[in-house]
């Protein structure tokens, strides 16, 4: 995800400095090379050795330490960085940057860089709400600096309110977005994900093994690429993705209503959910008690969401998913044509690495003109971006111009 990217991580003096360690881990795990710059106050909370061990790079703490004999430290870092992140960022360092003060290694690096700068504030709620601070933040935003707004909650000082450093996973998501080309800017992408549950009685239901991971990966990738994203999600164990409108539903009927209510303003629809084809005709009002007699549950068809979207698509681009266990291409091709979609993502869930509850997939892309694009085993995040590459290409060729 961040392979080949060089990131400068600035850590300033606040109790939330310990969270920068987890952020560093996320960045390096994603393939980034991270150079940590610590202020003197930051070293009162976390030692440079911790960051050096995890980053496998020297930690810069002194303005006058040279990276090499021929390099001026802050200029070398500023030139090298694809992105500068400051987390946590105190009111003090934000104020200095906003007013052009460069009196330590971190502020001079920020002053010298032409790369994007992402700032994650952390401070007391009263400091955060102070007009002087608000003016400094607004000034930096006007100059193109990016902010990850803090969370609300119990602060280390005992106060409660805004000012808590946002979670490392959220800062990481914003860092990836800052480094992603916005080729989906202007698109409004509607994604469905996860299973549905069809109740038999108050304690039992019919469902499937879908985890929602594929749909969530698509939603996150589309947001990073500049789209306005709405995610309609069935019951999953996944947290709502940052920065994405997430609509939680349970049954196929609820998903049908949620999708159609949002179809009109969508330009791209990606139906990655595993929707139950059938539901019990009658739901028992109370728990069905076990007896010696056999029990039969009469089923009726659920509404076909993808078929309805295909029938109403107009100039929208519609992507469907076909999870099969046999005759993959034939079944996916029939579904593609019957439901009038522009691209069908087919996978055999009986294959190792391509089923539910795993982080990988093996897919084939099927197109209405008969083309089939066969893909190797890859991570779902990688597949999500590859799918959006195809969506972007279809939009750019004029196959779909948007409603």
TrEMBL record:
It catalyses: (R)-4'-phosphopantothenate + L-cysteine + CTP = N-[(R)-4-phosphopantothenoyl]-L-cysteine + CMP + diphosphate + H(+); N-[(R)-4-phosphopantothenoyl]-L-cysteine + H(+) = (R)-4'-phosphopantetheine + CO2. InterPro entries: CoaB-like_sf, CoaBC, DNA/pantothenate-metab_flavo_C, Flavin_trans-like, Flavoprotein. Its cofactor is Mg(2+); FMN. CTP binds at residues 277, 287, 303-306, 321, 335, 339. SUPFAM superfamilies: CoaB-like, Homo-oligomeric flavin-containing Cys decarboxylases, HFCD. Keywords: Decarboxylase, Flavoprotein, FMN, Ligase, Lyase, Magnesium, Metal-binding, Multifunctional enzyme. Residues 184-393 form the DNA/pantothenate metabolism flavoprotein C-terminal domain. Residues 1-188 are annotated as: Phosphopantothenoylcysteine decarboxylase. Residues 189-403 are annotated as: Phosphopantothenate--cysteine ligase. Binds 1 FMN per subunit. Gene3D superfamilies: CoaB-like, Flavin prenyltransferase-like. Catalyzes two sequential steps in the biosynthesis of coenzyme A. In the first step cysteine is conjugated to 4'-phosphopantothenate to form 4-phosphopantothenoylcysteine. In the second step the latter compound is decarboxylated to form 4'-phosphopantotheine. Catalyzes two steps in the biosynthesis of coenzyme A. In the first step cysteine is conjugated to 4'-phosphopantothenate to form 4-phosphopantothenoylcysteine, in the latter compound is decarboxylated to form 4'-phosphopantotheine. In the N-terminal section; belongs to the HFCD (homo-oligomeric flavin containing Cys decarboxylase) superfamily. In the C-terminal section; belongs to the PPC synthetase family. This is Coenzyme A biosynthesis bifunctional protein CoaBC. The gene is coaBC.
